[in-house]
Structures are given as structure tokens and as C-alpha cells.
């Protein structure tokens, strides 16, 4: 038995190999002990990583503008960490500032690490870096050198060549033929694959996600039928005064969360309508944002006199805004003042919500909870502008998600076509037999197994007994010839006695 295991050992080592998104091959021979960011830790714990595998974390667990810091519910709901997640993180060391995990402290306490704390860590065998933006985290690289532990990198932005990665000089990303934006589920699946390689018993919540997606798609189909259009924007004012309000518009490829919404059916308007030079001040689309001053967004309003009476006609016919966090907080801090300076019909109607442009936690559980919230908002939304035609677009094709060749132009949105949607979200995993049975059914199966075992034992014992009985008869019962001879001898004896 031992020699058989040794024969297969090389195959097991080869099979237990993981290729990360920087092309590095990793092999595990023991249970890992992990150092990673706080949000990556939550993602892995959601997927079933044992808590004792986590040695320490770095960085902020919160979305950068999370209301959770104020002790209230996060505006990003389950796409942000939850209080129970935070409690688990606090049970482990952080190599960042001691108060980084305190929800009442400012976020700048979470920048950087304490190198002395990193050097003092014991037993770290794996550093996990789930990176967006620049494609790497210097904290992970420096910790790897200090602890002599490998870094496994998962790219949360692109699936493609390394030149797709953004740089500090061009954080929006390089446009390239082989750059394909990953969706939220793409990133979850990569983390899931890594988790299985690590040996995690993945208690993931894919069943929750598939059911939430099915409900979401029903609502998205209703939005298409009603002509309701959504848009991803940041509306901000540097001095928060009239004439300084601007809208920054992005396309669904810019963020994994947004791409997910489009590939399961949400009608999202694309940027590109503004042709003024100022609208291209952050660069060319699609990699850049379209920057639209308020006076260009409300063309019927005189410059410096933007009012609700003239703001009915807008550059984009948006019925529901998906707002970036900073602008959303400005709006929530002073709703009346904000809407007075930017009186868009969707804002006035209350048809907006904060959207997690920068996803932090990647798990089936987080996404399913978010879809539940968004589904409710979609179901209650109304069309505010005249309808506009949709455009045919294969939203999951490489042509669509390529960061250079665009199918949709300014003000366009993809038609509803389930054939082009990503069906993986709505596909429920097969249920395990024991999980699918009721308690009574499980008891019945158990009793049946006991009965079958007893029956088999009875048959075996009977066979043995019969076999032993046959042997006893063979050696202890007289044969027929012996019986006949014994009978004749007895008769002869009686005759002699009679004589």
C-alpha cells in the first residue's frame, strides 16, 4: 500500500500546481499559512478557508468611502465587508496601523505597513496578492523578500498580456488588442481555483448566487421592456458650488462589478456623446472617463443658471444613476443643495444608489447579496425620459470586452438577448445527496442501510453454519455401508442368542 502511494506521489505534486496571473507556477506540499490583504482574507474565508490558516492581514477592509466607518450600514451593502467579517479580522494581527481595523478611524491609518511587524511574523508560507490598478501590490513584494515566502498574484482587472496593466503614470490602463476586462465572477472564479489548489473545502455560496441572478435577470428584463436605462457616473463638485459641478462617465468595461451587471442583462448607457475637448481632458475613451461639465450636460440651461425648469433635457437620457462613492456621499450629506446644483430628473426622483466601482470582497456570497438589493431597486424604478432604441451587442464576446474595439457608442446600450448573457451566474451547482434529503429521508436511508447490513450478516452466518454442519456430518455420521453392517451384526447377535 505504501509503495503504491509513493508511485503516485509525483503525479499528486504535479496536479497540485497553480499558475498565477504573472505566469508563476506554485506547488503546495503542506497546508499554507497565509498573509494577505484584509479584503482578500474575507474573500477566502467566505470560500471556506479555515481561520487558523490566516496568519495576518494588511490594509483597510473597508471600501474607500464606506459608511461603515461611521457606524452605519455600508451603502455598498454586501459588496463591502460586514460586521461579522470585521470581527473575524480583528481576531488576527494586522501589519498595518493598530487602529486600521477600527471602523471609527480614518482610512489613512491603513496605508503602508509596519515593517517590524512583518519581520516578526512567524510561519508565513504563502502571500496572496489580489491586485487591480497597477497589477501588483508593493506590500506583497516587500513582504515576500522579508519572509522568504512566495507571492501568488490574482489580477482583478485584466485577463491578458502584462502590457494591459495600468501604471502609476496611466492608472486607467493601456488599450491593447489582447486586453480583456475581467468580470466580478471571473475574479471570483480565479480565487476559487486558487482556494481549491490550497486545499480549502470550498463552502462557497454558488447556490445563493444562481438564485439571486435569476431574480435579477427577471427584473433586468422588465427594465428593458419599460425602456429604463442605467448609467455609471461620478457627480462631484470641487468647491461644491454652482458652475463647478461635473459628471464623470465611465463604461461597463472599466470595473469588474460594472461588467458583471452588463453581462447578465442590465441596460447600461455607454459614454461618448460629448465631443468637446474638455470632455476628453482625462484621455480618450474607452480607457478614460468622459468629463462633462454641468453646462454641457444640461444644454437648455444658460451657463451659470442651471435650474430644474431647464434641466429636463439632458445629454444622456438616464433613468437611474449608479453613483461612485465620493459623489454619492456628497449627495447624501446635502441632498437638497446637491440636487439644486445638479437637478437631473433621476436624482430628483430618487432613482440612484451607490455603486461599488472598486470591488473589495470577491465571493459568491457578496455578489448574491448585492444583486438582491439591486433587484429591488430595479423593480421599483420608472422610466423618466422618452424611450431610446437599444443596440445589438454580444456583451460576453471578446470583441465586446476587448479594450480597443468597441461595439457600442455614446448613449447606446445593449439589447436584451439571453443568448449573449453569461449563463454561469444563473447556473445552480448540483446539490449533494445528503444536503438534498430531508431528515426523514436521511433516517430512512440509514435504517435501510442497517437492515441491508443485517440481512447480509444473516446470510453469511447461515452459509458458515451450513458449511460447518456439513463438515460435522461428514466426519461424525456413519456412512450407509457402516449402518448396514452394524444392522446385520446386530441381527446375527440376536439369532445366536436365540439359539
Automatic annotation (TrEMBL):
Highest taxon in the source lineage: Eukaryota
Protein keywords: Membrane, Transmembrane, Transmembrane helix
Membrane spanning residue stretches: 441-465
Protein name per Swiss-Prot or TrEMBL: Uncharacterized protein
Amino acid at each position: 500500500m505504501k509503495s503504491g502511494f509513493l508511485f503516485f506521489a509525483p503525479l499528486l505534486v504535479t496536479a497540485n500546481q497553480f499558475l498565477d496571473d504573472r505566469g508563476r507556477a506554485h506547488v503546495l506540499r503542506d497546508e499554507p499559512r497565509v498573509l494577505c490583504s484584509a479584503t482578500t482574507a474575507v474573500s477566502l474565508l467566505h470560500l471556506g478557508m479555515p481561520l487558523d490558516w490566516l496568519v495576518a492581514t494588511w490594509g483597510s477592509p473597508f471600501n474607500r468611502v464606506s459608511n461603515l466607518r461611521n457606524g452605519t450600514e455600508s451603502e455598498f451593502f454586501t459588496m463591502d465587508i460586514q460586521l461579522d467579517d470585521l470581527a473575524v479580522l480583528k481576531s488576527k494581527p494586522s501589519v498595518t496601523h493598530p487602529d486600521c481595523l477600527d471602523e471609527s478611524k480614518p482610512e489613512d491609518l491603513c496605508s503602508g505597513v509596519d515593517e517590524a511587524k512583518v519581520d516578526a511574523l512567524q510561519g508565513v508560507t504563502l502571500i496572496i496578492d489580489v491586485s487591480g490598478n497597477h497589477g501588483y501590490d508593493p506590500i506583497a513584494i516587500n513582504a515576500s523578500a522579508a519572509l522568504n515566502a512566495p507571492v501568488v498574484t490574482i489580477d482583478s482587472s485584466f485577463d491578458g498580456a502584462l502590457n494591459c496593466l495600468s501604471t502609476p503614470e496611466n492608472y486607467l490602463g493601456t488599450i491593447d488588442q489582447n486586453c480583456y476586462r475581467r468580470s466580478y465572477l471571473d475574479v471570483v472564479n480565479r480565487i476559487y481555483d486558487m482556494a481549491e489548489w490550497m486545499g480549502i473545502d470550498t463552502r462557497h455560496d454558488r447556490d445563493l448566487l444562481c438564485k439571486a441572478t435569476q431574480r435579477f435577470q427577471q427584473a433586468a428584463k422588465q427594465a428593458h421592456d419599460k425602456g429604463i436605462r442605467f448609467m455609471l457616473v461620478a457627480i462631484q463638485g470641487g468647491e461644491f458650488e454652482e458652475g463647478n459641478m461635473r459628471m464623470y462617465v465611465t463604461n461597463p468595461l472599466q470595473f469588474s462589478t460594472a461588467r458583471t451587471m452588463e453581462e447578465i442583462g442590465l441596460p447600461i448607457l455607454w459614454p461618448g456623446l460629448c465631443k468637446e475637448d474638455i470632455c476628453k481632458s482625462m484621455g480618450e475613451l474607452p480607457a478614460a472617463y468622459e468629463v462633462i461639465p454641468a453646462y454641457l450636460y444640461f444644454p437648455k440651461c444658460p451657463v451659470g443658471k442651471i435650474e430644474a425648469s431647464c434641466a429636463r433635457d439632458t445629454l444622456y437620457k438616464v433613468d437611474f444613476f449608479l453613483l461612485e462613492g465620493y459623489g454619492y456621499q456628497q449627495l447624501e450629506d446635502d441632498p437638497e443643495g446637491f440636487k439644486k446644483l445638479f437637478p437631473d430628473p433621476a436624482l430628483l426622483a430618487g432613482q440612484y444608489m451607490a455603486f461599488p466601482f472598486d470591488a473589495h470582497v470577491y465571493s459568491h456570497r457578496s455578489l448574491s447579496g448585492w444583486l438582491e438589493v439591486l433587484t429591488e431597486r430595479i423593480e421599483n424604478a420608472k422610466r423618466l425620459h422618452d424611450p431610446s432604441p437599444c443596440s445589438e451587442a454580444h456583451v460576453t464576446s471578446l470583441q465586446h470586452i476587448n479594450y480597443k474595439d468597441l461595439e457600442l457608442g455614446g448613449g447606446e446600450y445593449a439589447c436584451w438577448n439571453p443568448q449573449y448573457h453569461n449563463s454561469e451566474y444563473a447556473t445552480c451547482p448540483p446539490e449533494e445527496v445528503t444536503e438534498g434529503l430531508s431528515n426523514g429521508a436521511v433516517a430512512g436511508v440509514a435504517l435501510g442501510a442497517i437492515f441491508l447490513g443485517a440481512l447480509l450478516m444473516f446470510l453469511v452466518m447461515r452459509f458458515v453454519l451450513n458449511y460447518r454442519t456439513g463438515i460435522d456430518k461428514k466426519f461424525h455420521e456413519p456412512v450407509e455401508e457402516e449402518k448396514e453392517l452394524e444392522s446385520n451384526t446386530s441381527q446375527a447377535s440376536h439369532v445366536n442368542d436365540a439359539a
